[in-house]
UniProtKB/TrEMBL annotation:
SMART domains: FN3 (SM00060). Residues 1-25 are annotated as: Disordered. InterPro entries: ANKFN1, Ankyrin_rpt-contain_sf, FN3_dom, FN3_sf, Ig-like_fold. PROSITE patterns: FN3 (PS50853). The gene is Ankfn1. It comes from Malurus elegans (Red-winged fairywren). Residues 202-298 form the Fibronectin type-III domain. One of its GO terms (cellular component) is spindle. This is ANKF1 protein. It holds the Pfam family fn3.
Length: 690
């Protein structure tokens, strides 16, 4: 059967163009060809192609050539070219796991020539070994046949070259001879690499942690030995017995981008032992037991049977809002609107229509009052009016002192941009006889509707955490939204931000800039704040630092500028779960009023969480610029772990109880001075929700 395969191979080779005459010539040839392969087939003039079938044929031709270029790059051990092809084409386009005419895959060539960097690059792209090698004997036989047939082909071509007179055919035979000599040496090197290889050592380290009440996470590292062949897969095994008899389960991992695995479907409260072994072309190596040798699936909530804090809250709030809407639809306060004379209806209709009338335009200049500015940006461009102004509408021209409660109310309204019309209907009925506060808030809703109507979009984005104020009595409430799709806006256009800043003519003095000038000058800072507020944390357990300061009308919370939607923090570990045993240790430490662990202790040196907390606390104290000796008076919040979904959780580090919240005028020794800002607590809560 193998001989017949090689005969087929010879026939296939006879139909192929002559091979390269030498490794250098081969390298030049494949580089020239692969340069052509990089041409995108869609760049051709489609009008010259006859139908869709012709285009598909051309596409397949280029993908076939890219597959050939990958084989050439692996054979020539050109790591840069291999990485370039893997980046340019998908595994499917490269036919990464389709054997060639010799029954080999790119990964086979890389591991049998012991080229670890190329093998790792292929493995991370999803490459696999050839399915033809079902045993060590079959691989050895296949390699021996390739070497023998290549040697036979070299001898045949050499005899032809020696016996034939010099001519064009002879020159062609010499090229084929050099190509086959090079391939013969490649196959011999692959055969020698296979024969000298040995099974891999055990993974250098295996770490076991509790991922949830029904799962364990296994993280492992490749063997340290560099003498064995490249590892192509790993096997994770688990059992309730330290002897692994009986074996409860196993999983083979051949996607090696991340060397970790989560064992799912385990029983809470049961101890499981885990081990990991590595595999290469010579077989499976010895297993490595995990550290710790066993773990019990659990979660900190099992300590006292506590239910998740937010379970069902979103659904309950949606239900409550639906009930409020239903009540307001039939509320008696809406009846006067229904029973008014026809002329009154026309008057109300006319008063509402003026918002969307061409006469209602964006403002060019500000008078003394309260205004709404909407910033929409995309890459380095910003949305402006036809007068090259940031879209601004008036809220109240008699309002010169924005109360913090009004501003915080506006930020809550930003969570309901689609419900503005309904909110206006709820406020309209009694606004003539209501307080000044309700009148101001009704005007805010009118301004939002006007901005939405002029722009032709409902969602105005996120409210910046503080208004822009100038000395002339102007106040700007600013909303920010990043546009990631090709949305259509009305009455506005896109311009580069730098062009807007350089071309705008200021109408105020540098000593007393207007609110619009102040907004334009600080626009990059506001865009940065908005972008940073939208960044999500990577999965893991974090240590957060809670520091508050109070004012007359608000409480503010300390946050980092680089991520203002979350507390000052450092990452403890990648596993977000706190096990029942870990939480019990934290509770015991809190019950005896132990200080936070900043120095190692003999009896807890084997506790992984204790060691992780030590490192995290030192890092956090350095981040917020607090001397480490002062952290001895700090406390870990032991009432609960703050869970943000299933992937992110927080432990809180608190200053001494008297210093958690600093009063106005009080010395604040635990607040850093640079790289941080303080947000109103309500603004922070809204940002944390997003």
């Amino acid at each position: 059967k193998m001989t017949q395969q090689m005969r087929d191979l010879q026939l296939a080779q006879a139909r192929k163009p002559p091979g390269p005459s030498s490794p250098n010539a081969a390298k030049r040839l494949y580089r020239n060809l692969s340069g052509k392969f990089r041409v995108n087939y869609t760049s051709f003039d489609e009008g010259s192609l006859v139908g869709r079938g012709e285009k598909e044929k051309l596409r397949k031709s280029y993908l076939f050539q890219s597959n050939a270029a990958l084989f050439e790059a692996v054979e020539l051990q050109d790591l840069d070219r291999v990485q370039e092809l893997l980046k340019q084409y998908s595994p499917e386009e490269l036919d990464l796991n389709t054997p060639n005419s010799e029954g080999l895959l790119p990964l086979d060539i890389a591991i049998m020539t012991n080229n670890a960097p190329i093998a790792r690059a292929l493995l991370q792209a999803g490459a696999k070994e050839s399915p033809h090698f079902v045993s060590l004997e079959s691989r050895s036989l296949h390699l021996s046949t390739l070497v023998r047939e290549a040697e036979q082909r070299v001898n045949e071509l050499m005899a032809q070259v020696v016996n034939e007179a010099p001519n064009a055919d002879c020159s062609e035979k010499e090229k084929q001879l050099k190509a086959w000599e090079w391939r013969f040496r490649l196959y011999k090197r692959m055969k020698a690499g296979f024969e000298h290889a040995r099974v891999p050592d055990a993974p250098s380290s295996v770490h076991l942690s509790v991922a949830s009440s029904s799962s364990l996470q296994v993280t492992f590292w490749e063997p340290l030995s560099v003498n064995s062949a490249v590892v192509t897969k790993y096997k994770v095994e688990w059992s309730c017995s330290p002897t692994f008899s009986p074996l409860l389960g196993e999983a083979v991992i051949d996607k090696l981008k991340d060397l970790n695995f989560t064992i799912q479907g385990l029983v809470s409260g049961v101890a499981y032992h885990v081990r990991v072994s590595a595999y290469n072309m010579k077989g499976w190596g010895p297993p490595q037991a995990s550290v710790p040798p066993s773990a019990i699936p659990s979660n900190w909530r099992e300590y006292d049977g506590r239910a998740p804090r937010r379970r069902g809250q979103a659904e309950a709030l949606d239900h409550l809002l639906g009930q409020v809407k239903t009540v307001h639809q039939h509320c008696v306060c809406h009846e006067p609107c229904k029973n008014q004379p026809q002329s009154r209806k026309h008057s109300v209709s006319k008063s509402l229509k003026h918002l969307f009338h061409p006469g209602s335009k964006f403002l060019k200049t500000l008078k003394r009052g309260l205004y709404l500015a909407a910033i929409f940006y995309k890459d380095d461009n910003i949305l402006v009016t036809h007068e090259d102004q940031i879209p601004v509408v008036e809220i109240d021209d008699t309002y010169s002192c924005l109360l913090m409660q009004d501003f915080l109310w506006f930020t809550k309204v930003s969570c309901m941009w689609d419900e503005i019309l309904w909110l206006r209907q709820c406020v309209t009925v009694s606004q003539s006889s209501c307080s000044c506060i309700l009148q101001t808030r009704f005007k805010m809703l009118l301004a939002i509707s006007q901005m939405q109507g002029l722009l032709g979009i409902q969602d105005l984005g996120q409210v910046f955490f503080e208004p822009v104020k100038d000395k002339q009595g102007n106040i700007l409430i600013v909303t920010l939204k990043e546009v990631k799709t090709n949305q259509t806006f009305e009455s506005v256009r896109w311009v580069p931000i730098c062009k807007l800043q350089s071309s705008r003519k200021s109408v105020s003095s540098p000593e007393e800039p207007s609110a619009l000038d102040m907004l334009l000058i600080s626009i990059q800072d506001k865009l940065s704040y908005h972008q940073q507020s939208s960044r999500a944390l990577s999965p893991g357990l974090y240590l957060g630092y809670l520091k508050l300061c109070s004012a007359v009308d608000q409480i503010r919370v300390l946050v980092p500028e680089r991520r203002p939607n979350i507390l000052c923090h450092v990452k403890i570990r990648s596993n977000p779960n706190i096990s029942r045993e870990e939480w019990e240790w934290l509770q015991n430490m809190a019950s005896v009023e132990e200080p936070v662990p900043t120095e190692p202790e003999a009896d807890t040196s084997q506790n992984p969480l204790f060691q992780e907390l030590q490192v995290a606390i030192k890092e956090l104290m350095t981040l917020v610029n607090i001397p480490l000796q002062e952290a001895k008076d700090f406390r870990l919040y032991s009432q609960e772990v703050l869970d943000f979904g299933d992937q992110v959780s927080f432990l809180l580090l608190l200053p001494p109880s008297d210093d958690v919240c600093t009063a106005p005028g009080q010395n604040n020794p635990y607040t850093p001075h640079s790289g941080f800002l303080t947000l109103p607590l309500q603004i922070f809560e809204l940002g944390e929700e997003t």
